[in-house]
Design goal:
Structural class: mainly alpha
Strand content: under 5%
Largest sheet: none
Distance between the termini: 36 Å
Shape: globular
Number of strands: 0
Order of helices and strands: HHHHHHHHHHHHHHHHHH
């Protein structure tokens, strides 16, 4: 019997959830369109100098970091689907604001709103997948989410690159307007999405007021959550090597042309966009803990191989870097769906939004800290940078042992009795 393309790619069935997948795709393209080009956009559309634009974006992103903590209780109170719609509408309003931003304060405001919208969207969509998708299918769904996100980022980045090539203020404004429309479309897709499993999220949200895990003080005492977010923070630092360190290393230390760094980034995007679900299925027979340890070991091995290229003969450098990039990408694909699934399994009913908010915070903090830390380490010497990254991977291997792999164990580490059965299904 001929296998279908969906089966060969290990894609989960999206029957009844097509609106959710479409919204994710639209949002990812919109984010990919502006994520790499925010600085260039404001340089073309305002009279602000580069240093001021950079400072405005930094201030806005720092202000947006803690906002996921506000989103968590909203999800637990009103449901992830409703908050997901709000996140898209925030994104739309931000990009409408992009059309009129011409002063430093307005750049900060619209960039801040865009950051809050993205934090809201990703916290809500992780919660939604974790509550309406059957437990045995969650990992494949989180893999699909990761694959769709990367494909959207890649397509959005390509469209944005075309805009840069045209070099016109009006082209940038047009893309900002289209981006606002895309977020409205994503919100409409979620509004129109009707699936009986969504009823479960409302029931779960109503538990938030009485659930013993309902407050953040309890979360702060939850050692299971601390272990998961700590491991994810280490992995976020690893993932940022690709965007912060790699191109600089390739051009300044390995003395390769700049296109090599760009090609490495492109290969990573293509691999994740096409093989994420296949990789997740291949690791399906392994325990969560084994997959996370394997990811940390593979990341450490990729960094060691990249470091080794500094002493390799010239003919070996480019093939060696692409081999290291493949190992890096396998590690990236292995860990992301598993961490999302694990957190869904560990979070009690009525508090999933708060747990996902804490998880999202580790992404935000890691993304903010990584550029500063990695560039500082590189200033001390590339050997120190690679040694520290390998050490972070080793610490992650050890930290995985502190993550309980069942909800009952998580409740024990939090000092509370195990939560009752989830009400995700009607």
């Amino acid at each position: 019997m001929t296998r279908s393309l969906a089966d060969r790619l290990a894609l989960p069935s999206i029957r009844g959830h097509g609106g959710l997948v479409a919204a994710l795709a639209v949002d990812s393209v919109g984010t990919g369109l502006f994520m790499p080009f925010g600085v260039v956009y404001f340089l073309y559309t305002t009279t602000l100098p580069l240093t001021v634009v950079g400072a405005c974006l930094t201030v806005a992103r720092l202000l947006a970091i803690p906002m996921s903590i506000v989103v968590g209780p909203l999800i637990d109170r009103y449901g992830a689907r409703r908050v997901l719609i709000w996140g898209n509408l925030l994104g739309a309003s931000a990009f409408v604001g992009y059309l009129f931003a011409d002063a430093a304060w307005s750049v900060i405001v619209v960039t801040f709103v865009a950051g809050v919208g993205q934090s809201t969207f990703w916290t809500a969509i992780r919660t939604l997948v974790g509550t309406v998708i059957e437990p045995e299918r969650r990992t494949s769904w989180f893999a699909l989410q990761s694959m769709t996100r990367n494909a959207g980022f890649g397509l959005g980045g390509l469209i944005g690159a075309v805009a840069i090539g045209l070099g016109s203020k009006w082209v940038y404004l047009a893309f900002a307007g289209l981006n606002a429309v895309s977020f409205v479309v994503a919100a409409i897709l979620v509004v129109r999405w009707r699936h009986p499993d969504v009823v479960g999220t409302a029931a779960t949200a109503r538990q938030g007021a009485t659930n013993p895990f309902g407050g953040y003080r309890q979360l702060l005492r939850d050692r299971a959550l601390a272990a998961v977010t700590g491991v994810n923070l280490a992995f976020v630092m690893c993932a940022n090597v690709l965007t912060v360190l790699l191109v600089v290393y390739v051009t300044t230390e390995l003395h390769q042309p700049a296109w090599v760094g760009g090609a490495l980034f492109t290969v990573n995007t293509i691999l994740v966009s096409t093989t994420q679900t296949v990789t997740t299925r291949a690791a399906g027979g392994l325990s969560h803990a084994t997959v996370l340890r394997l990811a940390a070991v593979l990341w450490g091995a990729s960094f060691g191989l990249m470091w080794l290229m500094a002493a390799a003969p010239g003919w070996l450098v480019i093939p060696g870097m692409f081999l290291a990039l493949v190992v890096f990408t396998i590690a990236e694909m292995a860990q992301d769906p598993v961490l999302n699934t694990l957190l869904s399994e560990l979070s009690p009913p009525g508090a999933t939004g708060r747990y996902m908010a804490a998880y999202q915070l580790s992404w935000s903090v890691g993304g903010a800290v990584a550029p500063l830390l990695l560039t500082w380490l590189m200033s001390l010497g590339i050997a120190i940078a690679w040694l520290v990254m390998i050490a972070i991977c080793a610490v992650a291997v050890l930290a995985v042992a502190r993550i309980p792999m069942t909800r009952a164990a998580a409740a024990d580490t939090a000092g509370s009795p195990p939560a009752g059965p989830a009400t995700d299904q009607p």
